[in-house]
Amino acid sequence: MVLQRTFARYAERTAFERPLTSGVAYAVRVLHSEREQFEKHQGWTIKRMDILEQKPVHKDDYEPEALEPSPVQEEYAPVIFAQDTVSHVISLDLLSGKEDRDNVLRARASGKGVLTAPFRLIKTNRLGVILTFAVYKMDLPSNATPNERIQATAGYIGGIFHIQSLVEKLLQQLASKQTIDVTVLDTTNQSYPISMYDSSSNTSDNDLSYVSMLNFGDPLRKHEMHCRFKEKAPWPLLEMATSTGILVIALLLGHIFHATMIRIAKVEDDCRKMMELKKRAEAADVAKSQFLATVSHEIRTPMNGVLGMLQMLMDTDLDVTQQDYVRTAQESGKALVSLINEVLDQAKIESGKLELEAVQFDLRATLDDVLSLFSGKSQEKGVELGVYVSDRVPKILIGDPGRFRQIITNLMGNSIKFTDRGHVFVTVHLIEEVMDSIDVETESSPQNTLSGFPVPKRRLSWSKFRSFSQEVPICPSVSLISDPINLIVSVEDTGEGIPLEAQSRIFTPFVQVGPSISRTHGGTGIGLSISKYLVGLMNGEIGFVSIPQVGSTFTFTAVFNNGHSNLGEFGGPQINTQSILSTSEFHGMTALLVDPRPVRAKLSRYHVQRLGICVEVVPDLTYGSWSVLNCGMVKIDMILMEEELWDDSSSSLPIFLNHLRDNDPGAVPKLFLLTNSVSSSRTSNGTTTAIPSKPAVITKPLRASMIATSLRRVMGFRNRTDLRNGETSRLALRNLLQGRKILVVDDNDVNLKVAAGALKKYGADVVCENSGSKAISLLKPPHQFDACFMDIQMPVIDGFEATKRIREAERSFSGEYGRGNGSQDGKAVNCHVPILAMTADVIQATHEECIQCGMDGYVSKPFEAEQLYREVSQFFASQTN
Amino acid sequence: MDVVQLKRQLIAFTELLFGEGFLDEQFNQLQQLQDENNPNFVAEVATLFFEDSERILNELANNLDKQSVDFKKVDAHVHQLKGSSSSIGAQRVQRVCIIFRNFCNERNVEGCLKCLQQLKHEYALVKSKLEALFSLEQQILAAGGSPSI
Fold it and tell me: What's the pLDDT tens digit per position in A286-342?
């Protein structure tokens, strides 16, 4: 679209083409039905002009905002563009002005340029005429009817002429202003000629005047020019010369008007042509996107076949060379598929088909996943990789984890690709945190970074964000989000940076820093443009700062919903894993983290704390550092130490350990080294007895799950507890189930066999059935079975249904039984057989659902001894007593 | 080959099966259920599993071959296979089943066919591995040893 600025600039620049117009303006035709949308789009209301005409204001008082909005009309012609000299007419409705209305109506019905009667122009109050052309949406045949023309009208171009300045300009050119009086009259209405220009000082009539007709190109208007000498009657010679001069002036005036009109018509024509071309280009663009989407999809399908077959080929017997070939083919295939996916995304973006999900997800777990993805590469390169999420970011967010992951993966991928030393560091904060605290900005000294390499000032990467500069509440437009969480995510690296000349175009699709990049690093250069678009979808912004040979920091913001505000509305099965971690066996332990670099210590602490471990940080192990910690009071369960400190601390560590031992004999903390690369995992020289000769190594990038695994391995938790529990419950189960007659119902023979096998193992007497109906016929009161394990998902009659029917039969039986014999003794026991549901996934069958249809509980398939014991003991224990 | 060597081979092979993810913890559980009263338990379950799987794979192929696929039916079959594979601990088969069911929900024939292909492949793999395992055990028995590790 053309903007006012563009229009004004263009009009300014081409002003010499129409030297006597004092301004041009463009108004569009707006029907009343479109008014509201139009006004919203433009950001102002259509103003009325007539009031302004009735009581003209002094030009200094002119205030467009104070104008009254236009009353309801059938249609409007508000000015949307104007040359700067007449910019005050923007938003005025031409149809509300008397002269203008007349002009507009005539112009669009005739298709020709039309002149107004001279009138006082708004604001300047000078006399002028306006030349109006109609602009049509399409090419009209020359014989089009007025009605057709009106229908096709898109808008109006108006040229404004100040008569006074016009004539003065001309007369100046002839240098004879002093001696000649010129009066220009509009004589359309013969009886009331309107004076358009009058330079004479005295009004005394002078017969010696020369009258000539002026033609401004509008047949309906007649203009006369009266010229006479100011002084006394001149010599005839002079008179002749003067009249010739006046004739020349008249001709010139006419010519200028004519030329202006032709010029305007030509510009208008060009504009139409451009619009046509633009339309065609847009259509071509849409077609391209559709083509890309289709072709990408069509390529992907067979590619999956190729990849699948390659995978199978890998599993066959291959020699080393063959395996190498297959692996290469597979990798190339994967690269191709990821490329296609990117192109497909781009195509989706261009055709506007990309939409975001809204599901619950754990941001930290998502980031851990991405981290794992790059861990191999970072270890290989020896680049330190880290993710830090502020504690104030809620655990569960609602948004599109896949797309968020895509952005992060893209940014981290780029960073790792271009970084050969130092670090890549991802931080997630709330925007509020960054805005109102300075201490998030930990990079006050350039050396205080994750790896010690300097980085560009992170703050610069978001310096252009609107949400920051305006200080307005971020994203008020997103009404869907009830409890918005505004995140700001930075990916910082110490890589080679982006060359200054390339920085302006890195978000453009398919543009890479240089032609050699794709050769050395691969990729299409499409990722950043996709990321930018995705960030936009998340109501965020993306920016960066980059210094060549120092590094780059990309920062983006995104708005998510807080996952805790409306739990249960969005199902999210993937959130379990991490929550189990935090309630893990490490809860309540204390770790001592030895790290002299604050940024890195903060990162390590974040991950260790996620396991529920309390973390104390000291810069080193000298007495002065740890004595302030009050180590005597707190039991230190483990020491985490950066690898680089290991060599230096060989002297201070034993002292420290001894100190601990003095306080609490027998409690020796486990020692862990945090290291960057696999290769350097060290074998210690271990000469001093107090130092554990081989400390356990935790390889970065740190992730909560991975730390947990390492800790578990070294501290030997799991096995002990698991085994003990397993053994006890197994014995108890045997006691409970020995000799019991149990019916197992499952339509799956394999499951049936396994379940039966498990129960037999504990001494039960098992009968198997494979359908709900058979179960119903076998489970008729009085019962011969002690219990029944029933699968829920069975064809024809499922577990719930079968149980309901069995319970019904039991009820009617107990009714009869009760009526017949009375229920004095304990024989009524047989009226209720315990039925336990067997289910593969716990989510599918909730406990309530089972109870509702009359079941007594449920066990998960395949059987787990402890759970089986828990459920079975509920009803067997009471019976055995 | 003597018993010791065979046993070593068995251990290595079992480790490989677990390491490559063909089998999971559930298979261990099955092996623990096998005792004097039930000496061929694992092999019996496996045989059942093979029969069941082959039947289901055929059904699936037939169903997906039709002009209009009855996804409900397909899903039920896959559910069956998922159940039996998880019972025996054939976790790679089980995983494909999970993906398969997603495609069923999406009513994506292409995806289903791809999964079926993969299922067949995974099934064939786990079958051959299990058979190899059993034959090793038989050899140990024949050589006079006990296959329990």
Answer: 777 777 777 776 777 777 778 777 877 877 777 778 888 888 888 888 878 777 777
Q: Are A542 and A554 in contact (CB under 8 A)?
A: yes
Pairing of strands A21-28, A857-860: unpaired
Show Cβ contacts of residue A257 under 8 Å, excluding neighbours closer than 6 positions. Answer: A20, A131, A215, A216, A217
A301 at interface of B, judged by CB pairs closer than 8 A? yes
Question: Are A757 and B49 within 8 A, CB to CB?
Answer: no
Which of B33, B36, B52, B117 is the best residue to mutate to test the A interface, defined by the most A CB atoms within 10 Å of its own CB? B33
3-state secondary structure (DSSP) of residue A41: helix
Task: Pinpoint the alpha helices (H) of A764-864.
Answer: 772-778, 799-821, 847-852
- Residue ranges of A 775-814 with Cβ closer than 8 A to chain B: 793, 795
Q: Which CATH class is domain B3-142?
A: mainly alpha
Nearest to B96 by CA among B107, B81, B108, B110: B81
Please report, for chain B, the start and end positions of each structural domain, with discontinuous segments joined by +: 3-142
CB-based burial, A264-283: b 16+ in 10 Å, e otherwise: beebbeeebeeeeeeeeeee
Compute the distance between CA of residue A718 and CA of residue A715 in angstroms, rounded to an integer. Answer: 9
Nearest alpha carbon to residue A344 among A290, A421, A273, A269: A290
In sequence order, what are the residues at sequence separation of 6 or more whose Cβ sits closer than 8 angstroms to the Cβ of residue A862? A754, A755, A758, B26, B29, B86, B87
B87–A751 C-beta distance less than 8 A:
yes
**pLDDT for position A3:** 64
CB contact under 8 A, A753 and B37: no
Number of neighbouring beta carbons within 10 Å of residue A778: 17
Task: Give the CA-trace dihedral at A90, A93, A98, A104, to 10 degrees.
Answer: 90
Q: How many CB atoms lie within 10 A of CB A261?
A: 20
CB atoms A760 and B37 under 8 Å:
yes
The predicted-structure confidence for A799-825, as pLDDT tens digits, reads as follows 888 888 888 888 888 776 555 444 444
Q: Do B48 and A308 touch (CB under 8 A)?
A: no
Query: CA angle at residue A616 from A611 to A620, to 5 degrees?
Result: 130
Backbone angles phi, psi at A6, to 5 degrees: -60, -45
Distance (Å, whole) CA A862 – CA B73: 24
- Residue percentage of chain A with pLDDT more than 70: 67
- pLDDT for A229 equals 61
Among residues B134, B132, B140, which one has the least CA distance to residue B8?
B140
Distance from CA of B119 to the nearest CA of A (A): 12
**B114 → closest Cβ in A304, A312, A861:** A304
Closest partner CB to A308 (pick from B26, B83, B114): B114
Q: How far is the alpha carbon of B62 from chain A, nearest alpha carbon, in Å?
A: 19
Q: Is residue A548 scored above 70 in pLDDT?
A: yes
Q: Which of residues 21-50 of B touch A (CB under 8 A)?
A: 26, 29-30, 32-33, 35, 37-38, 41, 44-45, 48-49
Taking the C-alpha atoms of residue A691 and residue A650, their distance in angstroms, rounded to an integer, is 8
Burial class (CB in 10 A: 0-12, 13-18, 19+), A299: middle
Kindly identify which residue of chain B lies nearest to residue A865, measuring between CA atoms.
B29
Strands A423-430 and A484-493: antiparallel
> How far is the CA of B107 from the CAs of A503, B56, B72, in angstroms?
45, 19, 9
pLDDT above 50: residue A457: yes
Confidence band of A555 (pLDDT split at 50, 70, 90): very high
Question: Between A308, A750, A793, which is nearest B88 by CB?
Answer: A750
Tell me if chain A has a CB within 8 Å of the CB of B83: yes
CA-nearest residue to B122 within chain A is: A312
Residue A760 to residue B79, Cβ atoms within 8 A: no
For residues A848 and A837, what is the distance between their CA atoms, to the nearest angstrom?
12
